[in-house]
């Protein structure tokens, strides 16, 4: 009986805390940015898998954003759409409160292909966001499949 209870507790912990890299605490304070330069090259031995899709899809890619961390006035976010037609939504949220949408960068139909969007670090009211961690979320709805992913962007 104790073994079953411990197993259930362990499964609940795994489900709610996840297995994020670079974790600093069991809350939502992980730093999962991929360090990139201004051309999108990954710096050092950082892991691109921090920005990979959370589902298996050979033609669906999201990020990493570059440069990251952002020290200038804009960041480029690359992504691909696997099939046509697709409805694409790309939003930026506060890292600490992912339900707090700061700006919707894309909410439109797009054809299959590779895309990039340049985000000027402003929110929906055109106010420059302060230094901190932000999360980019993408959802691509194709005819029979929905692709989702996210990645973190650090503004310094």
Strand content: 25-35%
**N-to-C terminal Cα separation, in Å?**
51 Å
Low-confidence stretches: 1-31
CATH-level-2 architecture of the largest domain: Sandwich
Tally of helical runs: 1
Reported for the largest beta sheet, the result is: 4 strands, antiparallel
Radius of gyration: 17 Å
Kindly state the percentage of residues in helix. 10-25%
The tally of domains stands at 2
CATH class of the largest domain: Mainly Beta
Quote the average pLDDT: 75
What is the structural class?
mainly beta
Say what the CATH topology of the largest domain is: Immunoglobulin-like
Q: Topology as H/E string?
A: HEEEEEE
Number of strands: 6
Compile the SSE list and pairings.
Layout: H1 2-17, E1 75-81, E2 86-94, E3 101-110, E4 113-119, E5 132-141, E6 146-155
Antiparallel strand pairs: 1-4, 2-3, 2-5, 5-6
Protein model, in words:
The longest helix is centred in the first third of the chain and has 16 residues, at 2-17. The radius of gyration is 17 Å and the shape is globular. 22% of the residues are buried. It has a four-stranded antiparallel β-sheet, with no helix packed on it. A two-stranded antiparallel ribbon has the order 1-4. The protein folds into two domains: 1-30; 32-155, Sandwich (Immunoglobulin-like). The chain starts with a helix and ends with a strand. The chain is built from one helix and six strands. With 156 residues, the chain is mainly beta. 10% of the residues lie in helices and 34% in strands. A hairpin with a 6-residue loop joins strand 2 (86-94) and strand 3. Residues 1-31 have low confidence and may be disordered.
